[in-house]
């Protein structure tokens, strides 16, 4: 895995880092990402039975030639592998608008949710919201498809660290429809990390927040940007340089979109992500077998 990840980043990091430096955009009320600049982004699509067409349900991250990292809640109630396909190399939701042959979709043979995953009636009371999806065959790596690296175990990003969330989720964020409008093109947002002490205050997420989570976003109403419905499971990507204080532009998936406020954009309710570095041992125990 490490070898594949590092080789892929040597091929792609220059293009990604160049556009990330100046980006000040968002997913809600969003701006389009540069096509194929986030080559690990996955569109997880479900079709319970024929003739229902596959529809985008969640995002995910390619972390290995056979494994997708995502949120456990994405598989409620559709937890049957044959219902799903994982599409990579995608920018336009309408495949006919994309680069010919860039997109590849893969069947799923196994879905592994964390055994400690808890999803109560309150959709914001979620713990261990992490899952791994095993593909039926290895991914063919291309310029448009390559994995993102995992962070070092236990790493906690400092407050103010600029990270990016990407996805095809609801672009408006002003309602709580069960079937929000999916973006036509992949969007991205620059979201600064908010420290645990602040995000766990009563005015923020209080006791809903766990140490295995990470908050990112903005606090004042005039600058609210957020992940939203349809972005769930997608990555919060940060460069290794921001974690180590260096200049390395290797990208790492530090968060998995987990939950947020109803309507997605509310004062003092930033997006909440599963902190990937808190689950390093769990991930390694599965993908290293």
Structure write-up:
The structure is a single chain. The strands form three sheets. This protein has a six-stranded antiparallel beta barrel. A six-stranded antiparallel barrel has the order 2-3-4-9-6-5. Strands 7-8 form a two-stranded antiparallel sheet. It has helices at 2-20, 196-199, 240-244, 280-287, and strands spanning 31-32, 41-46, 55-64, 67-70, 84-88, 104-113, 118-119, 126-127, 131-135, 162-167, 187-194, 213-216, 235-239, 251-259, 271-275. It folds into two domains: 2-22 and 39-147 and 282-287, Trypsin-like serine proteases (Thrombin, subunit H, Beta Barrel), CATH 2.40.10; 162-278, Beta Barrel (Thrombin, subunit H). By secondary structure, it is an alpha+beta fold. A hairpin with a 6-residue loop joins strand 7 and strand 8. The chain is globular, with a radius of gyration of 17 Å. The protein has four helices and 15 strands. The longest helix has 19 residues, at 2-20. The model is unreliable at 6-29 and 174-179 (pLDDT under 50). Keywords: Disulfide bond, Hydrolase, Protease, Serine protease.
Class from helix and strand fractions: alpha+beta
The DSSP helix count reads 4
Strand content: 25-35%
The overall pLDDT, averaged over residues, is: 81
Give, in spatial order, the strands making up the sheet with the most strands.
Answer: 10-11-12-15-14-13
CATH topology of the largest domain: Thrombin, subunit H
């Amino acid at each position: 895995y490490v070898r594949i990840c590092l080789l892929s980043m040597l091929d792609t990091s220059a293009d990604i880092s160049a556009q990330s430096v100046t980006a000040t955009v968002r997913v809600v009320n969003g701006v389009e990402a540069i096509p194929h600049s986030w080559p690990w982004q996955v569109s997880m699509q479900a079709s319970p039975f024929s003739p229902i067409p596959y529809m985008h349900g969640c995002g995910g991250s390619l972390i290995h030639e056979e494994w997708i990292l995502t949120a456990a809640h994405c598989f409620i109630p559709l937890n049957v592998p044959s219902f799903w396909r994982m599409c990579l190399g995608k920018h336009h939701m309408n495949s006919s608008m994309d680069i010919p042959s860039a997109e590849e979709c893969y069947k799923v043979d196994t879905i592994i949710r964390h055994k400690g995953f808890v999803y109560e009636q309150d959709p914001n009371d979620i713990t261990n919201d992490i899952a791994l999806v095993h593909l039926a065959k290895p991914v063919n790596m291309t310029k448009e498809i390559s994995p993102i690296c995992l962070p070092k175990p236990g790493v906690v990003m400092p407050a103010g660290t600029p990270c990016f969330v990407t996805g095809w989720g609801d672009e408006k964020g002003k309602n709580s429809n069960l079937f929000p409008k999916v973006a036509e093109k992949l969007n991205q947002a620059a979201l600064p990390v908010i420290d645990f002490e602040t995000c766990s205050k009563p005015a923020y997420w209080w006791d809903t927040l766990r140490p295995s989570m990470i908050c990112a976003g903005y606090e004042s109403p005039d600058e609210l940007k957020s992940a939203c419905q349809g972005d769930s499971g997608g990555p919060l990507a940060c460069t290794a340089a921001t974690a180590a204080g260096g200049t390395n532009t290797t990208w790492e998936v530090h968060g998995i979109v987990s939950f947020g406020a109803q309507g997605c954009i509310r004062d003092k309710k930033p997006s909440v992500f599963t902190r990937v570095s808190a689950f390093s041992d769990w991930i390694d125990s599965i993908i290293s077998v």
